């Protein structure tokens, strides 16, 4: 089979190599899956660089989120068990973590449903307790993680403020349903959020960026607001001033969604049922901005890492360019 493999750590476009290799052999409790579509995530770049919390043995195949087909013909979504990731014709996944793909989503959309939307749902509901009528501030609202949070916030009845970088991304955020869009390239984020909320600030902040985004969040979070720390796409991990959180009465909440797979797997499956129902009702639909030919997987990972994309880039193994999957 063909697979993209990493033999040394470095930038994705430099270390990802397309090779012929044997199909992976599933271990006890695992399934062999034929990959139908593989979503590109920021952690794929971190894996290539050796900066992710999981460091698979070299060589490995990146690709942490797929829509695939089991040997008995079931269409499923899964997070592959590294080192046998999703940027390949076949991958391996733990059977307990394999979930049915929603019928209302095509392969590319289904591949983009799992990590981003599960992270959004747990962050907004389990961690922040988002309530109908509250104001939700989403950083990187036009990106893969942010666009999921925007849709889930609207589905929960929240008023959503989306922060983006650039006019093109602002247009995407408006199309997603953001009630207010703030372009950090031209607007002062803190001033814009306070103006949009009558001076109160945002009840819940969803931050996958860190760095300056977090600093702005702490200045415009509401009384008894909640800042959900999802990731650090900026590369800058902030050091929160805890005295500031004390004085302003807001909460800083960390979210490591992957931990739920180990600590509370039943909650992950319940969330999947909720997301499937939301998709069936049209409340959520992954924003797939590009279906990428298999040969271009490395460049797709680089572009996602660079922050130049909107929505999701999904790699289609074995499909010709432009083919709907």
TrEMBL record:
Q: Which SMART domains match?
A: PKS_ER
Cross-referenced SUPFAM superfamilies: GroES-like, NAD(P)-binding Rossmann-fold domains
Q: Name one GO molecular function term.
A: oxidoreductase activity
Q: Which domain of life is it from?
A: Bacteria
Q: Where is this region: Disordered?
A: 1-26
Task: List, as start-end ranges, the regions of compositional bias called Basic and acidic residues.
Answer: 8-23
**May I ask which residue range the UniProt record assigns to the signal sequence?**
none
Q: One matching Pfam family, short form?
A: ADH_zinc_N
Q: Where is the Enoyl reductase (ER) domain?
A: 11-315
PANTHER family xrefs: QUINONE OXIDOREDUCTASE-LIKE PROTEIN 2, SHORT-CHAIN DEHYDROGENASE/REDUCTASE
Q: What is this protein called?
A: Oxidoreductase
| Lineage, opening ranks | Bacteria, Bacillati, Actinomycetota, Actinomycetes, Kitasatosporales
